[in-house]
Amino acid sequence: MSQLRGAIVSGNYSEAAALLSEYKSLISNVTSQYYEEQKIGFANRVDHELEHYLMQIISGSMTLNDTLNQLAMLDHELGTLTNITGLNITSVKELHELYKELKAIYPLIQGNETAQAQILQLLKHGKGFNDWLNMTQQFNQEAMGWQSHGHGQAGQGTGQGPEWKRRRPEGTAW
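Above: the chain's sequence. Below: its structure in token form.
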């Protein structure tokens, strides 16, 4: 700042302009770095809180359909948040993958209350996204095996299907 003051006092305005340009660049870099650190901090907080919130959803759900209804809303809202903000939040991507896996399983076990209760119990015993994803992927493989051997869907029923299937807009990209 003393250099800037000296340049202005001595009438060397080109040097003053160059110094102001350097200060502006420095302030811009510091501000950019600050906002980037804030974005990373926010993403880390969401990562931490989302897994705990999902544990509460799963443990409080009485049926697989309850879980899917809540995951559909959460997946949609957080997907919108990440699309708007451009934040790279790992747990939101993991939530989306978990939701997709469970959504793929549902038609294979629709009407089979035992299988639905089984996957819900597996989820309730999971310790986080890695567990949940591994369990659902493994269960999906087993359910596809049942399907190919003539087991699985017991009474598809009619109507519009579960609420989560009707509410979830498709095509949200991350």
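The helical segments are 2-9, 13-60, 64-85, 90-109, 113-125, 129-148, 163-167.
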